[in-house]
Amino acid sequence: MTAHGEWGRYGSAMSGLYGPPRRKVGWPVAFCGEEVSMDKRAWPALWAAIMILGLGIRISQGTELRIGASVSQTGPFATEVGPFGALLKAWADELNAVGGILTGGKRIPVRMFLYDDRSDEATARRMYERMATVDQVHLMLGPYSSPLTFAASTAAELHKVPFLAICANSPKIYERGYRWIACVIDEAPRYTYRYWEMIRHEGLARSVSFVVEDTLHPKGVYEGARALAQEAGLRVLSSQIAPRDTRDFTTLLVRLKEEDPDILFVSANIPFAIQFMAQARDQRLRPREFHVTHHGGPFLKALGTAAEGVTGQSYWTRAMRGPGADRFLKLLEAARISPDDYPWAPAYMMALQVVEAVLAGAPPLDRASLMEHLKASRTETLGGEVWFRENGVGSINTYPSQIQGGSYQIVWPPELATAPHIYPATKDGNRK
Amino acid sequence: MMGWSLSVGLVSGGVLLALGLFLTGPYWSLVLWALCQQAVLAFSYNFLGGMGREFHLGHCAFFGLGAYVSAVCLDAALPWWIAMVGAGSCGALTARGLAAFLVGFRGPDFALSSLCVAILAGILARNLGSVTGGVSGLSTVVLDRGVPYLSTLALLLGTVWIHHTLMASRWGRALRAVGSDPLAASQLGIPGDSIRAEALVLGSALASLAGGIYPMHSGYVSPESAFGLDVLLAPVVAVLLGGPGTRWGPLWGSSLLVLVQEFLLTKFQESNLLLFGLFLVVSGLRAHTEVARHWAGLWAYLRAAKRSPCLRP
Amino acid sequence: MTLLHPQIALQGLATGAIYAVAAMGMQFILGSTGRVHLGVGQALVMTALFLGWTLERTGIPLGWVMLGLSVSGALAARIMHPPALWRHVLREQGDRAFLLITIGAGMAMEALAQWLWPLPGMASVAAGAPLSLSAVFIAWPKGLAIVVSASAALSLYALLHRTRRGKALRAWDMGSAQLETVGVDTHRLARWATSVGLGVAAMGGVLLGMTQVVSAQEWIAWSLKSLCVALIGGGLNPLSALAMGWAMGVGEAWVSQYLGPQWHPALAPVLLPLVLRLRSRGAI
Whose CA is closest to B104, among B233, B200, B169, B177? Predict the structure, then answer.
């Protein structure tokens, strides 16, 4: 008997045609082409293992606040929020070092349940089901991005667990009538309203062209921005949508050079934005202003001086300060996260500040009370006041910021601006 | 032997049902549901990808097609069973149309051509926004979890029955012959292209049915969830792990795939990708040697070999 | 707009140059061992990320970095592909196990790359003044990519036609099952071909890092793209890989120009099966 069965190495075609399959002993299992026997007792053992695991480990709740969250540590979203598990852990550790989170004058320990959702909807859904049923969390913090939040919030709604979404502003999420979801940030169409307010106030720009990455969030932002631009009195010259993995933007750039808009609005995530801007620079595209919605640290690092003068949207910058700014920077240091490299970190901090504020009001530690208190709360945070609409949509929105001298400056509204808006970025709109 | 295996399969199915609905919590029922879905995809892949010895990378295209058809039907307030019938029919018809073109290829040519089908399907899903919702995808009503779970289990049992019956039939032997040695098979008068086309249509129809159930549970379908790389590679890896062209290999492989991934995700959050990659590497290396036969049952093999002289190398 | 705007064509050529180099690396392995090596994309991405890191942290000139990274890629490939992988090169199980190994290794390397380079990056060498000819601009790294791709193709062609090992590889590609009987050690040959192939892919990674933004998760997409171009180009033929890579880059730019950028990814999956079908019928 050879390794390939009784017919030898090359006889499998013949055996398959002329004879019945080999007689097997026990329950047939195979690996890589070889049918071999497996002890029958192994199968019940396997099912028993599933049953044991399936019963789940019921952990006694005790007096601790159990918070569940998933972070995209792998997959496409890892570049946006990969290390944020460390941020959440640093927050929990900081609180537990002084006895826990403050609620009604006493402190209770915080226990974080963190999982990797692999930037995948089905995995996110499973992890949040686990948090709700196996881990028995009191509260959930949402994953990054609208698609994952869409899936994860279904689990929260099913098991009636308060779900505080963070970076998920697609209106679709909040149109379902869910009662157990609240989000820190405002909806995507309003993402850039402050920027267009500023443009209208200044009255300098007359035309705008859009370049949009064909993914959920940038498209949602673009749809709102287009309407807001028209309301601000600008003429929309064109809107060009390109897939996320576009490598060559020359076709778009040739058209844009012909159009010569005052504002070139790029609604995209960072990799797309860097790629586009690098090619725009190389091909000497010179609008009066580049507005790139996500122009965070990697954008500045990759483009260097070519990023100078580019405006974008920020939840927070160092120059802004705000309540809890020092603590935020300390937590980031503990988690080894640079705030410039990860522009979503402030949104996560705001969510944590909301959690602290809600608990400080000493609600009973049950899910229904927590949700009630959460929905009714108004909290001053790093990026402004957080409150929630009936459908769960939050109040936090981004501020227009401009890269000036290699740092990010908030340029509107005047009461929060850390530097004036420079328009056009250079005399002749030259990007170099 | 076949009757006994089938009986065991049905009993196992009943056990799975009990586990899923009554003994395990919602989380584990979800894991078991995911396992059943993967198993259906793996068994359906095993026709052409296992027995037919073709590296078929377009399998996910039919899963995705079924998911979108089902989502459109559910959105139009049609009953769920009509959505499933629609998904399966569309998958079968599409596969029938493509089979005429694809079966002319062999080896890497077939792999690439089938991959192109999957890539094109994803591009169409992203760009035909008026039908598919574009990158936003389609959201539907979430049905009571009994419906998708029982449907998946019924589909799995049906797929196993079809798989085992065909495998032991003349058609199955002919397919294995065509896969092993096409030249010898053709000289024996076996119509290779026609049998491979039938395997493609059958496998694709089953995959489409599995895809049709997906939005009933998730309430959502998008180009990433329907045609992403995870969906593309999962049945391939599952069958490779369990043993291509074998009777229970797809079930074994998909169980291993889902449970190992779940274990790593819950216990090793920060290094799950690294460990899973190493797991695949070690599995592949073990498959490569002549001594190590299979992953979880090595000791059983040696014991069986001691008892049965015909199994000794 | 003209049939194909010169700016669009030139940029397409630069993108195609990277496709071509990656495809040459894939062809070297596929054409000889008959195995699809999904690690080609990983070699590209890791090298691209490493390039940015190297240029940022050290003062080593770009030329030496390019050479060093290509050679390192080849050496790393040699170390990571022990002879045992090729021992059963003619066995079907070897092909399937090889696939599992490359997918698994790719995932493990992705985790490692993500840990080392968590953010998307572009080598800062790209921040330089573009070259211009009339109204057409091109960043000099892209011009370099076009030149390097042509040089690589010619060098590999010479390697395949002028050296003993190259000739043995070509004989293997033509389906010579008697190679071992005439004393050629196919295990060592496969190992050598893999090292060279991944070294070439590493060079492609340098070009990629200089011209485009790269993230650790993109490896499988690059593997599949290079596989497409390699197969369109035919067997072990670097010149055809070069031509097809350039054609793919220009073709995608042309599709972008006329159908819109959202359709340009459809070119390869539409073209490839047609080319394969025509070739199988002897039309190409």
Answer: B200
Residue C4 lies inside a defined structural domain of this protein? no
CATH number at residue C60: 1.10.3470
Residue A312 belongs to what H/E stretch? strand A311-314
Contact predicate A425/A280, CB 8 Å:
no
CB C262 within 8 A of CB C30: no
C98 to chain B, closest Cα gap in Å: 6
Domain(s) labelled CATH 3.40.50.2300 in chain A stretch across 65-188+343-397, 192-292+295-318+400-410
The number of domains in chain C is 1
pLDDT interval class at C1 (50, 70, 90) = low
ipTM: 0.85
pTM metric for this prediction: 0.86
Contact yes or no for C272 and B273 at CB 8 A: no
Average pLDDT over residues B159-182: 91
Q: How far apart are CA A176 and CA A170, in angstroms?
A: 12
Question: What is the CATH code of the structural domain delimited by A65-188+343-397?
Answer: 3.40.50.2300
CB-CB neighbors (< 8 A) of A39 in chain B = 297, 300, 303-304
Q: By residue range, what is the domain housing residue C240?
A: 11-280
C1: in domain: no
Q: Judge whether C177 lies within some domain.
A: yes
By DSSP bridging, strand A399-404 and strand B220-221 are unpaired
In-domain check, residue C6: no
Kindly list the structural domains of chain B, giving each domain's residue range(s) and its CATH number in brackets, ordered by start: 2-247 (1.10.3470)
pLDDT of C179-229, one tens digit each? Answer: 777 777 877 888 888 899 999 999 999 999 988 888 888 898 899 889 888
Place B303 in a pLDDT band, splitting at 50, 70 and 90: low
| Cα–Cα distance measured from residue B257 to residue A119, given in angstroms and rounded to the nearest whole number | 18
pLDDT tens digits along C23-61: 999 988 887 777 788 889 999 999 999 888 888 888 788
Q: What pLDDT band is residue B311 in, cutting at 50, 70 and 90?
A: low
Q: Which of residues 130-159 of A touch B (CB under 8 A)?
A: 130, 132-134, 147, 150-151, 154, 158-159
Is residue B292 within 8 A of residue B286, CB to CB? The reply is: yes
Chain A residues near residue B34 by CB distance under 8 angstroms? 122, 126
Residue range A192-292+295-318+400-410, CATH number: 3.40.50.2300
DSSP B39-65: HHHHHHHIIIIIIT------HHHHHHH
pLDDT for C241-266, tens place per residue?
999 999 999 999 888 888 888 898 88
Question: CB distance C256–A82 less than 8 Å?
Answer: no
